[in-house]
Write a structure and sequence with these properties.
This protein is of the alpha+beta class. Helices cover about 15% and strands about 35% of the residues.
Length: about 130
């Protein structure tokens, strides 16, 4: 199970990478493994400002559709458009090419509420 130590995590299996006031978000290796083959990623909240834990999109796998929850409040400033033609990148490279959105954070202090890699590993029994 791949759980990079330089990221923050949510109980909903999203990861967050922070660069200044911008957070990049995707789903974890554990999540993509549980979902199976991902066939579609939908984000219709580009340029919207949402609160922490609001739904920002969905990820569709062969067997199920799951909501994606915003890990921190802010404006969604970018969607990984490569996922429109290659949603399987979420399976093959969840922490790299499979990233989903970038958020301009409105309250970086919310990062303190997220899980560390060790806390996330404990959550999933890793």
């Amino acid at each position: 199970m791949n759980i990079p130590t330089n990221l923050k995590y949510t109980k909903d299996h999203e990861w967050v990478a922070v660069d200044g006031d911008v957070a990049t978000v995707g789903i974890t290796d554990f999540a993509q493994g549980e979902l199976g083959d991902i066939v579609y990623v939908e984000v219709e909240t580009l340029d919207e400002t949402l609160a922490m834990e609001e739904v920002f999109g969905t990820v569709e796998a062969v067997k199920t559709v799951s909501d994606l929850f915003l890990p921190v409040s802010g404006e969604i400033i970018e969607f990984n458009e490569a996922l429109e033609s290659e949603p399987e990148a979420v399976n093959s490279d969840p922490y790299g090419a499979g990233w989903m959105i970038k958020i301009k954070m409105s309250d970086p202090a919310e990062l303190d509420d997220l899980l560390s890699d060790a806390d996330y590993a404990a959550l999933i029994g890793g």
